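Quick one: structure for this chain?
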Amino acid sequence: MKRFDRDTEGRLTAAADGDEIAVIQTLAAQVADLVTSGTQADPAITRLLPDAYRDDAEASAEFRRFTTGALTERKVRNATAVIRSLDDAANSGIITLDGEAVQAWLRTLTDIRLTIAVRLNIATEDDEAGSDIDPMMRDIYDWLGFIQNSLVEALDA
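Got it. Here's what it folds into:
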């Protein structure tokens, strides 16, 4: 995938091949499925829907009761926006994002990377460097970070 750049109309664009599009769509769909059907016992759910009060389980449960539905809905909506933008790019190989889509991408990429980090036991930068993790998943994790950074840099340009 190429870096995102700003086009003449202010949208962000990047070229991607079919395999890259399929990987991001699959991961976005998996995160949407995870937040809608996962359980609080799953450490990835804990990262995606964290406790509001770490020292007060009762207050956290009450907060979660009022906020989890909306937060889950927003995460699914963002993932769906990513999937749709990639559907649009499937024929041309060019991903084109307006301001709202960029925000959905940034949030969904964060959710995907957090989920992968939990699955690979990556908690800090040091964990990445010396851990014994699946090299392909590590490459995907890093690649998604590149895409996310590319989006941020294009926004700042």
